[in-house]
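pinning this so it doesn't scroll away 📌
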Amino acid sequence: MKELDESLPSTITTETSRAHGVHPRDLYSWRDGGEIIELSRGAFRRADAPPASYPDMVAVAHRSPRAIVCCISAAVIHELTDEMPASVQIAVPTRSHTPVITYPPVMVFRFDEASFELGLTSFEAGPAESARIYDAARTVVDLMRFRKRFGEPIAYAALHRYLAAPGPRPALLLEYAEALGTFGPMSAALDVASAR
């Protein structure tokens, strides 16, 4: 059996292990020996790696590199909600392949390709490991778009937290809302919030 190589990254996929000349049987032997931990099918983390702040999101980012963390999952990262979703919520473009990830559980949203990367940024899901995520303003607008699905209180609470945080940009909310077809509800919600 090959020894776990120091040159391997903290998170290893079967693809990256192959690129480093590691046979799948060695990978699974390391897993069975506790040298690596399986985060998701085909995604592993070195047991000696610093702990990831968001291991589920590290796994999803490696399993579906084009996906973007969205909705309530993004609101948690941006501290816009205290809700904890039962699954990692990710967006993929409408015409792309839907990722099939059984663990961690994911909820997949299909967003229009023209506005798919609107508000795209990234965050550190683990030490020196980033994941794609929508920025706070896009997250607020998405929660407003899906307020019937997630509940209006979540959308309005996220809006209030966004506006109370340092450097809010109401004009950016309206710009995103116009691009995403929810200008009316977003504008009305901002009027109510600013009247308080």
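📌 and the second one:
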Amino acid sequence: MAPNAISCAPAFRILAILLLLTRPSAATAHDYHDALRKSILFFEGQRSGRLPPDQRLRWRHDSALHDGATAGVDLTGGYYDAGDNIKFGFPMAFTTTMLAWSVIDFGRSMGPELGNALKAVRWGTDYLLKATSKIGSGVVFVQVGDPLSDHNCWERPEDMDTLRTVYKVDGSHPGSDVAGETAAALAAASIVFRSRDTAYSRLLLNRAVTVFRFADRHRGAYSNSLHKAVCPFYCDVNGYQDELLWAAAWLHKASRRRQYREYIVRNEVVLRAGDTINEFGWDNKHAGINVLISKEVLMGRANYFASFKQNADGFICSILPGISHPQVQYSPGGLIFKAGGSNMQHVDYILGDNPLGMSYMVGYGAHYPQRIHHRASSLPSVAVHPAHIGCKAGSRYFLSPNPNPNVLVGAVVGGPNNNTDAFPDSRPFFQETEPTTYINAPLVGLLAFFSAHS
């Protein structure tokens, strides 16, 4: 059935959006299992901290081993969000939530890659537990690294000598958005590990409960509290209200406690559950909230959630190919466009079914981006060049026309950013050539489905 012939059906899960938008045609012959394996492998290239013996991308080495020391806390580990060396807590928490959701809904379709997916989730949650270790004192650590200092250099994470400033939110400087997303990630991951590691699952859920309580009690956007540190990089444009409902929805799913169901019902209007359901990403959770909660209705529970199902259905109907909608645009080659960059986060287009015949997943297919905007990938590895490469010494690698020496397998870049499907394979074009963890995370579940059913 051609994509424009797909009828509008009820929304079972947020990843169904991607399934609809990337439904393979009869002519498609992609190796989805290979793409799945590589999409998970990418996260090993984004690891910060001391790398484990089973690290598969061997050109990466230990980095940022003293993170948190200036604040008297261990904040090693976690993920670098993109091509820089900052650990931004907001997109990292969302990445972890989406990895967990991928496992929850599609883990049975992952085959031998399930173990690697679980490691990817845990690498995120281990860090988030560290970031919330002082929650008893009303503190959540939300970022490590000064972005201006970092973005002024082109350095390997293994060589970092830029400021590793630690940023936090607390009762006087609230961050309901980042704290709410952190609670959502911990709650979602508690479901992932419920039957695999009971004690760890319980720790995650208990911490999620405490962090959510903090986020709700001290309401406010973290970009107001930490504007210079997080804007314009991950400034909360959409407001913190959606993260509170998003966290409550995940806590309800993880705990089945009545209080979270009542919280959602009581705050639906106040926190604007029906607002801006036209996209889904690290900043705007409204579509995700409605799709997640709508599953309660679809499974015969909670009729008082019916409005969420209606909102979710409306969202998915609005982005189906062939349906005219003022908030949705497509490139001539079929890529959905939203405001801003990194359109790949919103796709068989990614794997090469596009006018350029290019796979936008690094290492997949014969033709893929060679000069991605990524420090560790573009600089020679420590094994090849053991000597320190300083802040400005890396500039010649950034400006070089040569392909990156280290292949960041599985990385999905931002992709074409105009209406002609054109793609500049060049590091300075960061919106098009920079990969991010939150592009890859929802793709993991999608590729698991295709690898099992195609």
